[in-house]
Batch of 3 targets.
Target 1
Amino acid sequence: MGGSLTIKLMKNQEIAAMFTEMGEMLEFLGENSFRVRAYLQAARVLADLEYTLNLSIDSIR
């Protein structure tokens, strides 16, 4: 009945790391180079942001 709900807030660097990992995986799988570059560019932009996005794991599902 009283299960607890845990919401993990992700920092920009954590989100950027996920985008980098996705880009690298796509590149390894031989996916479209434009798609790969889009993920890697998104990671760089997120890492360089001067403010925190405050995304929760639940908001990206």
Target 2
Amino acid sequence: MPALVNNYGESEVKLSPYFDECVADIHLLIRRSYLCSKRDAGCEIPETAYRYYEGIFQDMILETGTMDYFPDASDPEGHALARYPFEHTWLCKKTFMGEQGRTQIGSFFENTLGIQSTETDFPGFIALKRGENGHPDVLVVVLRGSQAESFQPLHGMLGSSWRTNYAVGKEKLPKAIFGFKGSMHYGFLEKELAFRQTLLHSIYDTIINEQVDIDNLIIVVTGHSQGGALAQITIVDLVKNLGPLLFGNDFDNAKHNRFYGYFMSPARVAGSKSTVRHIHDLVGKHNMIRHSTIHDPVPNAGIDRIFERIAILDPINAIFAYHNIGYLALDDSGRVLEKALASEASYPNKYDERLFTEFNRDRYLMVQIVKNKLFDSYKCHLKAKGCSRLMPKYHYWSTKSDLKMARAIFRAGPLGGLYWMVSCWHFGSRANNEGGYVFDPVLPDKNIDIALIRGRLHKMAKTMP
């Protein structure tokens, strides 16, 4: 099979055609993962009141051209529409089960705050696309990101999903499972270890019952935000433990390219550079992509990133530092904001006329100022360096439009300005039935090869004096 990323160091990056043809659908599947375990805060028993519960307990087939995420739902209110039609037919298996909320100080939440430390979770599902015209079958492992639900403590910010994020200490990898010594983010590792058995069972069940041709199979592991972090750990687990069982004892994913990792807006999980090297040797760096914008807060979070410019703090930073894996695919921040505005404006019955004539007017102003600010600064930077115009808009804080941008942000409202902009850069908008800022599959670029070129040039720009 071809690698996920080919010709990375050359002028034209090429994606695996079997992945490229599925990208738009994968974005829709990621959105579906949030709906599968979305709970209704208005119910008296929120622990069991899943809004789209039939996505948890039964398999469903999403036909080509459908926009219905749950076509077999018996309750009319149990249906949810995608932002655009599916390009392929997918068999979506029922969700697998796990646990979330494990922390190093779980007793503190239970004994001091009176908050249940962990809870049962449905972190994702398996989707299968049959190959056509000689193309292989594609099995996608879809992992859901964080959820903040209003009936949880502090409106979800102290809920079990977010406590998984907060458990930032480094944990040694169990060598018996992963095959090498290393460290990972404690919360994400514990969550992956909690669902790995049910995930493996779901994969086996799909392969056997659907009579999948293993010799003609590619497995994609994907997720957004926390789901992207979990996907980074999960692909290592699957390559090490499932790969030899499916493809033979001599299986080497770095050569055979059967597992692809596609991580959207992911938090970093690898606790050391040696862990990154082991992951790249096992999975193949060319088989993993992390997809985000320059200003996405989640991939850039961490104490080490805040103080990375202060050399004297390097020893301290190393204690807290987490590291990226795979190749970076980068979206243009200004373009993402424009798409978010268009997406929200086109969403049916979402906003009234007053909001768009007053509230959104300042948003449009803000977006234009941001775009002009970035363009002016990166244009000057390119002129000084003699670089390609594809160079990302990285050096921009020194321009005179800082105050104008700040003014536009705050004019757009307390949640409509900075918070809205940051949410969009995390590929989230309010074009959804659930309210709030959730993953919007319209926002990410579908031309991943172009985004990979942006990512490569961005990395080059950061190393320039």
Target 3
Amino acid sequence: MGQRSLRVVHEMLKYEEVLRNEYRYLAESRASIREFLENIYNQKRLHTALGYLSPVEFEAQLAALNMVTFAARQLAV
């Protein structure tokens, strides 16, 4: 991940998660940030590197493409 990409993720995390919550303990903040990254950023947020798809949508398209490719190869045999 390039420095610009990392900066974008850091800014997004700061404004969409950290500044919207109050944490009592460091462990609470770590758990909340981890949950945000795993459940929102990595699953739902659109990513430019994936053609403006969420990772879930991208993986579904990739799986469908792989199934079509596999079926075409089976027919060619």
